[in-house]
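Ligand-bound model needed. CO-5-methoxybenzimidazolylcobamide.
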Amino acid sequence: MTHRERILRAIRGEMPDRLPFAPRLDLWYTANAQSGTLPEKYKNHSFDEIARAEGWALHKINPEYQKARKPEDNLHWALGILSYKESVFGFRFSPDVDIEVKESGGRTKITYHTPVGSVSTTTVYTEEMRKAGVSNFWVEEHVLKGAKDYRPVGYIFENLKLHRDDRDFLQWKADIGEDGVPFTLAGRAASPMHHIQKYFVDATDFYFHYHDYAKEMQALEESMGGFFAQTIQLVGDSSAEGVYWGANFDDMITYPAFFAKDIVPWIRKAADILGRKGKYVSCHCDGENLGLLDLIRDSGMHIAEAVTPAPMTKVPIEEYYRRWSDKLTLFGGIPSILLLRESVSDEEFEAYLDHLFKAVAPGKRMILGIADSTPPKAVFERLVRIGEKVEKDGRLPLEAGGLRPLTPAAIAAATKPPSREIVWDEEFRQVQNDILEGDQAAIQGHIRGLLKKGAKAEYILKRGLLSAMEIISERFKTGEAFIPEVLLSARAMNEAVKLLEPHLSGAQLAAKGKVLIGTVKGDLHDIGKNLVITMLKGVGFATVDLGIDVPVPAFVKAVEEHKPHILGLSALLTTTMPQMKAVIDALKQKGLRDRVKVMVGGAPVNEKFARDIGADGYAPDGAEAVTLARKLIAEK
Ligand code: B1M
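Prediction:
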């Protein structure tokens, strides 16, 4: 059986002869090719040649974003209007949309002049990002900054015309042949609202826009419907069997209520229409999916790709397989950290593989892959080892072996501590409620009312506002509240504090401590960091946000300048985690280490790593970051 037949059988829910194995190699390949560290025998090979030589299937889902055929292919990245060799369509802007492009030093600024107003975007792609193998552009300036920007963007999309252009796709498909199944890119967003979230607004600001500009958002969503409908039509008429439909589902970012209301209907629509035309819809589910397990299963998608199980997320592989494999095909299942010697020993790696083969028995609807992709520092021999194990033990049906899948209740118990009852303080019930509701307008009137009645500002702050923020933070920890609730509550809190400030003494106003925080060099992930800042601010810490991609000297300089009690470091990539140690070492060198507590966090970081690099503490989430910050301040 060829790789292609094997993969197609797995997608159709039939039994292939053995488990298909298709590791995604682009990130690993680019970084190692740049630094001259490819395995000796593959020094002059492409990644497809390496996969073929090793007998692996080709992973052909994620487009090679950086291999644009012409500049226009990804010029409009910040609008999410893309076309690559993997696409089956091209696009044309309306002739009355005038496009002005200015480029300098890896930065591209574009202004779109439309008959209903102008909007602009700036994207960044540096040499450094290219060397690190990063495939996505960084959007420095988002198109939606305020209410006035919605209409021009709507206009652009209403008048955008897509047309069939699949010559390159057909060639690409022919090149892949029997070694894999090529997936055409419909879009990295699965629905118009997901598109707005992914491209048009800063990841954190999105939740404010979603709340504050509901009417404008809805109108924009409607203006984009035609773009999505054209996409479905063209992909449906193409010769592609696999369709890439949406990326980065995560129960924090695309939280369950949002996912159900704003994303699932379009996945269902695409899967229904495309499914009838013999196409398979695949979504890139590389995030934390615990809160989305049932929604994803029932969304209609045919393939969940980049499935990243524990220990990188909370969901064990057996749970993924048990919950999903009757309805959709899992593609992934091997967390990328398994390939890193500094994270996982050889014995642990082997143990995971043994476990995996039992956990996905009988092996139907399973395509093995490295989720989300093979990291630059992966031990190549481990990839080879997976291939060997598939050859030797991957014959289907696999034998189940003494695994007891976790029940949903057990998972919930393991991940959700019981939440505290709300204790209402009758005098401040209204403002507590405003914080919980995130109602920044109502809280201003209620605070003024309380002050007028003679309530002490200090009590309003402590018994009213801070106690409600504690509750939100706890609800976040237990999974009852999501990012938007936390952000809106914190914003209401800030409005209220502004009104109280003139009535508070210096001592009462004094913050609980100052925290300087940034995402380390090479890392552009900022949603988690922003949330940590919001939660710290919400309970009274003064915070200084150093942003993303912060080099070591900048951290040191900022510590000297701001003299914080705590320095917070965030990293989401295994490749950038070592930067945390570099910052701590540099602080030592400058004689600053004793003056500041260092706290670290981010998905791949853990307690042991924090200890090993000499940090003072690690927090797994925003709520724990608050607890830790308090503890560190008390120790100072
Ligand atoms: Co990226 N990405 N990504 N990504 N991305 C991850 C992190 C990844 C785990 C996906 C996967 O493999 N399944 C993987 C890293 C693998 C690894 O190294 N271990 C990955 C990869 C590979 C990449 C690229 C390399 C992809 C590529 O180009 N081929 C690229 C790298 C870009 C770069 O940074 N140089 C990339 C790009 C992106 C996007 C731009 C598309 C987007 C980021 C958008 C943004 O941040 N503005 C993105 C996203 C969204 C993700 C996932 C899906 C979600 C991250 C997130 O925001 N979660 C992520 C999957 C995952 O994490 N499992 C993934 C929600 C957020 C609230 O949680 O950030 O964990 P989190 O923050 C939590 C805690 O960790 C903690 O509190 C927060 C709130 O509770 N915390 C702290 C965080 N910082 C803290 C600091 C503290 C204390 C606690 O004290 C100081």
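The first helix runs from residue 3 to 12.
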